[in-house]
Amino acid sequence: MRYVPRSPWFRAALVFPSVVAVVALLWWRGPDWGLVARAFNLVDWAWIVFAIGLNLLSVLARSLSWRLTIDQALDPPRPRFDQVFSAFSIGLLANAVLPGRIGELARVAVLRRHLPHGPGTTGTLIGTVFAHRLFDLFPALLLVAYVFSTAKIPHWAVTSLVIVMVAGVMLFTLAFATAKRRHRRPSLDDAGPLRRLLVMARQGLAVLRSPLPAAGAIVLQTAGWVLQLFAVYVSMRAFNIHAPLPAAALVLLLMNVATIFPLWPGNFGLLQAAVALPLVQYGVAYSTGFAYAIVLQFVEMSVGVGVGLIFLAREGLSFAMLRHMPDASEFETAVEEEDEPRPEAARARAGVSG
Question: Alpha helix (H) ranges present in the chain?
Fold first, then answer.
């Protein structure tokens, strides 16, 4: 694999264009900041606390969904729920504060520490993360159908929504076609580390071939989305925004589209504009919508950051370590190390005593 520089200057050079884009966006489509500040004077923070509680329940439901996915891919001993929830929360923390979707690899790296390093464990966990993300397609399609039939959708958002949904359906179809059943273990004796990683990642998609567990994971993932929808709706009440539930559904949908590719932490600015612009059609002032989007992003991030920091300390990790999560080449090395026989096992196969 090609070496990727880890120099802070190199990373800064990558992030700098995104920062310039954010500043330009806020200057071009930014609100009257005085009006935004005044909007905060009217906030009923009790509704925000309620929304944070709903968001916590959403994270719990989605963690249970990932646990079901993992159980179909790994042989015993399987991780406990508290370990899965810890890894999931740390992944949310990494996604919230770092550019890119490094949180998906972070949760694999954290959970792998609690599992025996048997053949293919790392690759299989990567597959479970991919399968778990694919299950978002089902509630997303339901949400899209609801929004298209009830909400006032801006013309600029229609194309983006259609493209994202078509891409999601294609990815799910491809994943289902390539998924392996848990007990069909291919021979990887002559395979290189990258091929072993890809093959075991397919093993992580095993839940797609198990109808009942897959249905359970989808139901839990859908429950997580429903709780998020009500958190968005409740947060509107905090700003005295009395838009109907379809408006909240539209906001949730556009928030997810705006954060698919985190170009900078939280995609701050882009997300606020994506929320505030469509709310104008519901009679919400752009500055109020922008202030609402800032608080809404806080609600969405609060559980991931707050709970993530707690579990980061519980795991004995530091925030700095999140910035050095394994890249693809390091995962290949991990797979290669997992596949190396332990000395005791090698002696046993050779019939040699210790």
Answer: 8-29, 33-39, 45-73, 81-97, 102-112, 121-134, 137-150, 155-178, 193-203, 211-238, 245-258, 270-279, 286-314, 319-322, 328-339, 343-350
Chain segment 58-99, per-residue pLDDT in tens: 999 999 999 999 998 888 889 999 999 999 999 999 888 877
How far is CA 251 from its chain centroid? 18
What are the domain boundaries of the chain? Answer: 32-337
Instruction: Give the pair of three-digit tokens for residue 271.
Output: 């997300």
* Long-range pairs for 316-322: beta carbons < 8 A, 24 or more residues apart: 317/90, 317/110, 322/90, 322/93, 322/94, 322/97, 322/98, 322/102, 322/106
Indicate the SS3 state at residue 156. Answer: helix
Q: DSSP character for 209? A: G
Angle value at C-alpha 228, between 145 and 79, nearest 5 degrees = 110
Q: Does position 335 have pLDDT exceeding 70, yes or no?
A: no
Alpha-carbon span 100 to 349, nearest angstrom: 44
39 near 239, Cβ under 8 Å?
yes
Dig out the tokens for 347 from the structure. 């002696």
Direct distance between the N- and C-terminal alpha carbons of the chain, in angstroms, rounded to an integer: 37
What letters, b where the CB count within 10 A reaches 16 and e where it falls short, cover 24-53?
eebeeebbeeeebeebeeebeeebbebbbe
Tokens of 240: 């005295």
pLDDT single digits (tens) 128-156? 888 888 888 899 889 988 998 998 887 77
